[in-house]
Design brief:
By secondary structure, the protein is an alpha+beta fold. It contains 16 helices and eleven strands. It has a four-stranded antiparallel β-sheet. A three-stranded antiparallel β-sheet has the order 9-10-11. The longest helix is centred in the middle third of the chain and has 25 residues. The radius of gyration is 29 Å and the shape is globular. It starts with a helix and ends with a strand.
Length: 500
């Protein structure tokens, strides 16, 4: 007998002698009756106000939770698996009664939010903001290089050049280790990552504006408010994004940017940023006396408008009749900048500063509105899609600039070719990415006639599906024997939305 045959026979005998290992099959279960929510995050649990004993995992130390059934039926024993931030896994065994209570708590929470089946699938109200992971560390490290480090260097610049350089390196390096330590001990969502980075960058700009308002002098005069603004904006964005979806967090920053820029643009169109007229004595120019009052007022209004935009910004994503994602916001902001650039192509060199600012501000607003009408409401772009589309716009600007250089163009022609190249690159990249169709709430449209024969008005009437289901469920409850404790609890449920 050959050695190969002997090994084969021995393996067969061993396989027959070894006891059979029967695996335990766990089938995924949904957290809601519509079978749409398959994964829970701390953010979603907080929005639905889940707590013990209906919700076993404690708050603050887990990333995501999934539900599994231990047999072939959906009503059998189940297990809730929570992935903790330290990499360990916690498993909570659920009896039939506990599983029923969990389903009821989730359903009550969804009804209280007025969420329908489509919203749980893709609407902004229930889009899960998943853990960000290393993206938070990357953004905060970038913020350390661009804001914390330069501000610290400016503060220490009055001591010596070595102190300024060392301060920059210390602040930039510390931002990495602090953020890396944070993700080890808590769950940080993508919404918090988005808004913390946005608040840090814009907070540093607001700090610089504050320094200008108060006529800061020296490196410390500018470094301190910039550092305070960057750190305060990061903390405020991080805390404010709790419970927000990615789209709501991104729209908060977008509305803040548009509010601040539009306010500054309107103020500039009235001459808020005109240079103070030089005073000559005996033919010699005299030094200017600080920042003009009109400039201080404009900067203060811009800061106030930006802060207000953060507060009302989530409403754009939350109350739109279409889904607004973080990628959509990237496209809208890029389109606004391209609109501002294209508007400059129609300005002759003879136009003064306030007139140029007014036209640029108009182009900025029109670019944002154009993106909302033609892009945002027709597709749902992920954050990765938005980044690729932005890169496509940059590539289009480079191509337009290359063509302008070859054609030896300058002035208005150069500006128009740069802007048109960016717009073309954005549109082409958006088509290449091919994002999913918009998943916004569906609305019934009722067309009503008017007194004029050729005129018509559109009345959008939307009955929330969750409210419809509740009315049907209430009728069934009245005709069946169901205990009061099993009836859903409704808190501020919107039944109907009407839009003209």
């Amino acid at each position: 007998m050959s050695a190969v045959a002997f090994v084969a026979i021995a393996a067969a005998v061993g396989a027959q002698a070894a006891p059979a290992v029967i695996p335990q099959i766990e089938r995924p279960l949904a957290f809601d009756g519509a079978k749409r929510i398959m994964v829970f995050t701390p953010s979603l649990a907080a929005r639905l106000k889940l707590s013990a004993p209906d919700w076993p995992p404690p708050g603050g130390d887990w990333n995501e939770a999934r539900l599994y059934s231990l047999d072939s039926t959906a009503n059998g024993p189940a297990v809730l698996v929570a992935q903790r931030v330290d990499g360990t896994v916690a498993r909570y065994a659920l009896s039939n009664d506990a599983l029923a209570r969990l389903w009821r708590a989730v359903s009550d929470g969804l009804l209280a939010l007025g969420a329908d089946v489509e919203a749980t699938r893709g609407g902004t109200s229930m889009v899960l903001s998943e853990p960000a992971g290393n993206a938070f560390v990357r953004n905060q490290t970038t913020l350390g290089l661009l804001a914390y480090g330069p501000a610290t260097a400016a503060i220490l610049s009055e001591s010596s050049g070595a102190a300024a350089g060392g301060g920059y390196l210390l602040a930039a390096g510390t931002s990495f280790f602090v953020s890396a330590q944070m993700i080890r001990h808590r769950s940080i969502t993508r919404a918090q990552t988005i808004l913390a980075f946005h608040g840090g960058t814009r907070g540093s700009a607001m700090g610089a504006a504050v320094a200008g308002i108060f006529d800061a002098d020296g490196g410390a005069g500018y470094g301190l408010p910039i550092l305070a603004g960057a750190f305060g904006g990061t903390v405020a964005g991080f805390q404010g994004a709790r419970g927000l979806s990615d789209g709501e967090a991104a729209s908060s920053g977008f509305v803040a940017d548009m509010s601040a820029l539009t306010t500054l643009g309107v103020a500039g169109s009235f001459g808020a940023f005109k240079e103070r007229e030089r005073v000559f004595v005996n033919g010699f120019p005299q030094p200017t006396l600080g920042t003009p009052t009109r400039t201080r007022i404009a900067l203060g209004l811009g800061i106030a408008a930006g802060l207000s935009g953060y507060l009302v910004g989530p409403r754009y994503a939350r109350r739109s009749s279409y889904n607004v994602t973080a990628g959509d916001i990237d496209v809208a902001f890029t389109s606004a900048l391209l609109g501002a650039g294209l508007a400059n192509a129609f300005i002759s060199n003879s136009v003064n500063g306030p007139g140029r600012i007014a036209v640029t501000t108009g182009g900025l607003v029109l670019g944002a509105l154009a993106a909302d009408r033609t892009k945002v409401r027709h597709a749902d772009r992920t954050s990765a899609d938005g980044t690729l589309i932005q890169l496509g716009a940059i590539a289009g600007v480079l191509i337009g600039g290359g063509v302008a250089v070859i054609a030896d163009a300058d002035g208005q022609v150069l500006t128009s070719m740069l802007a048109l190249g960016g717009i073309g690159g954005l549109a082409l990249a958006d088509a290449v990415v091919g994002s999913a169709q918009d998943a916004g709430p569906k609305r019934g449209v009722l067309t009503t006639g008017s007194r004029d024969a050729g005129a018509a008005s559109r009345l959008s009437l939307s009955i929330v599906p969750a409210a419809s289901a509740l009315l049907i469920h209430t009728q069934r409850v009245r005709t069946s024997r169901v205990s009061v404790t099993e009836r859903p609890t409704i808190r501020n449920l919107p039944v109907m939305r009407i839009a003209f």
